[in-house]
Amino acid sequence: MGKATEELWNILQDVGEDEFKLFKWFLKQDYILEGFTGIPVAWLEKADRQDTVDLMVQKYQGPGALKVTLKVLEKICRNDLVQRLQNSSSGAKDVTNHGSVLLKSDYERQKAEFGAKIKLMIRERQMKIGEIRHSAELSSKSADRHIADSERVFTALLQSVKTSLDTLIEAINEKRKETLKQAKEFIQELEQEISELTKKSTKMEELSRTEDHPDFLNRFSSLNAIPTTKNWTEVTIPPPSYGGSVGAAVNQLEETLSKQMKKLIDKAKLNRVQQFAKDVTLDPNTANPYLILSDDGKQVYCGGIKQNLPDNLERFNTASNVLGKQSFSSGRFYYEVQVKGKTSWDLGVVKESINRKGSITASPMNGYWTICLRTGIDVKYQPKKVGVFVDYDKSSVSFFDVDSADIIQTFNDCSFTEKLYPFFSPGPCHGGKNSTPLIISPVSYND
């Protein structure tokens, strides 16, 4: 023990003041050497070199103190002292051998950690490759859809142009036929008059050759009258105006193309949002007690008798509403509802925290993004099937007439901050006039 203390004392004498401070700092750390804990800070705070040696020997015993000293000297880059201590102490040589074992163990650990890290990096990159490939596939499918949509639109537009051109050519040909018919009739009439005048002229020539003067006078008086003919001076056949027909046809074509293009683009838009269709079912725990739900959770209508149901927090107790089971808090989703035959209904999405008790005002301010139909309200048309599309990340809700592909209404800047649920209200029965159920329909999507 005494020799180890002396050897450590001699080593620390050659350590500079800054190095000694750093030496003591490393002695405080628990990780300085595996199996050795640090010396308490309070013990080392005012310790000089001799005190430090005593604390180390007391804490780690002789061989242990040598091991720690060698490790700390390596840390503070005093390899010369490491070599000197190893040469002057047999215990230090043992420590060196032990250090070699430790270094080998540390090497194996670091090698394992490095190998694991490399494998993790490889795995991350493999996952990124999969992610990029998936994005590329989605992009390719999207491109195919847009090409198909474009082909449908342009094919339809080209067909409209051809139809319009055929109609225009037919109209021009009809005008030409009418003009030719009129010319033919005039020519026939003129030829008829020429024939009659020719006959008259021939008879006059024959009469002029007679020598019987009394007979000539009698016959001349009957031939002297000029045949009744048309005054052809005012008769003309002006060429028909085809320019007006072309201009009118082009204007009509522009109007037709505009309407058709809007319809085709709307259908393409609807087809694109239909790819985000989700399977939506009704949640009986939210249904007003007057509502009757089908067993499959796809239909709902208002019955005439209040059911005995628990008034749980999720249930609407006054308004005849029901929510879907599925909630959405990101991405895009779409569903369709058949409303054919109904005179009153509400559809859309609502936020999770809406008020479900008592009187309810359905508005975006209160967390309702819905549209409705009411009896007695004058509407342009009543859709048979309504599509509801939500883009959570873009904070928008759009409603489609599925049959015409027209956008009925869109809410923008909705500022979603919580879960959204599909919302349904079949409306009151109105004496059986509104007893037709709302039906969540399967979506027919053309991929």
Topology:
Elements: H1 2-13, H2 17-27, H3 41-44, H4 49-75, H5 79-88, H6 90-208, H7 213-223, H8 243-274, E1 291-293, E2 299-302, E3 322-323, E4 332-338, E5 345-351, E6 368-373, E7 385-391, E8 396-401, E9 407-411, E10 420-425, E11 438-441
Antiparallel strand pairs: 1-2, 2-11, 3-10, 4-7, 4-11, 5-6, 5-10, 7-8, 8-9
Helix pairs in contact: 1-4, 2-4, 4-5, 4-6, 5-6, 6-7, 6-8
Strand order of the largest sheet: 1-2-11-4-7-8-9
Strand residue content: 5-15%
Give the C-alpha Rg.
Answer: 51 Å
The count of β-strands is 11
Structural class: alpha+beta
H-E order: HHHHHHHHEEEEEEEEEEE
Shape: elongated
Mean pLDDT value? 83
Uncertain parts: none
**How helical, in percent, are the residues?**
40-55%
In whole angstroms, the N-to-C terminal distance is: 85 Å
Q: Specify the biggest β-sheet.
A: 7 strands, antiparallel
Number of H/I helices? 8
What does this structure look like?
By secondary structure, this protein is of the alpha+beta class. The protein is built from 8 helices and 11 strands. Helix 1 crosses helix 4 (49-75), helix 4 (49-75) packs across helix 6 and helix 5 packs antiparallel against helix 6. The longest helix is centred in the middle third of the chain and has 119 residues, at 90-208. The protein is elongated, with a radius of gyration of 51 Å. It starts with a helix and ends in a 6-residue tail after the last strand.
